[in-house]
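Posting for a labmate who doesn't have an account.
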Amino acid sequence: MKKNCFSKNRNNQDNQIIENGLNDFDNQNFFNSDCSRRNFIKKATVIGTGIVSIPLIGKLTEIDAYGAGQSATISVVKGSSEDKLVQKAIDLLGGMSKFVKRGDIVAIKPNIGWDRTYQQAATTNPFVIKKLIELCYNAGAKKVRIMDNTCHSASMTFVRSGIQRVCKEVGADLIYPKENRFKNMNMGGIAIKQWPVFVDVIEADKLINVPVAKVHALSILTLGMKNFYGAVGGNRGRLHQEIHQGIVDMARFFKPNLTVIDAVRIMIRNGPTGGSPRDVKKIDTLIAGTDYVACDAYAATLFGMKPDQVGHINLAGKYGLGVKELSKINKLTANV
């Protein structure tokens, strides 16, 4: 039986969301405060309502790798072998050991939301995920966990996407989005105040975000930042009320260590679900980097768009969460 992203909140927590709009919030204080995923373990407390709260401390320049006027480096690799694409993209950035240390528990967040095959470009390529898992273990990871809060039933999407099979082959844990995997947390956002969050994403030592690149009916594109819709629970349909601001809120909260955008096949129409071969374009490309805004900004060009044409990329760049200007993005390119 399928479930819908826009269905009633499983946890009956619908009312604890999007409580105050942009006009009621001090934007500068928000983006000068640290409510990121990496501070959760050290600073999280449970307040009286049962909501996990993260103290908002620190300055933007202290918590973000990139800011206004800075530059970013990404790798852009082209080739027909997913194994070689991933290896080269990570090698160009310094190798997986630069991101994953011995003993780390690593969360990898692909897009497995839909009951589609990866050839339909609705879900992340499983062979990209397989190679990333292998690289994490080779770098000394204690455990690699794969998770996504799916739109269609996880029992179907995990199998049809091919992700379940590759997890078994290389020894990664595939985490199902059960109710007890989510906790209400203070995300401290502008559009999103409190929301149920996938605990396994928060508790990991390192987070690698691996979306598939595609168009989206509401957010224009779904790339790295939008992929975090699968890292939260609740009635996600409500998040579409201020979709671009909400995407930025989530990206800042989860703050991935590494973003790897699967553009082996991209969905060029009828996103995010597609379904027809005409919706797919095979371009055999992989984008990787630590600046998730820069990764998304460059990925927008694959669709013939400028970063400023996509609301959440534009917002994230303006807030100093990363580099959106293509002229400031250093591209390490290769063909394999």
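Reply:
Got it, the structure tokens are right above this. The chain is about 25% helix and 20% strand.
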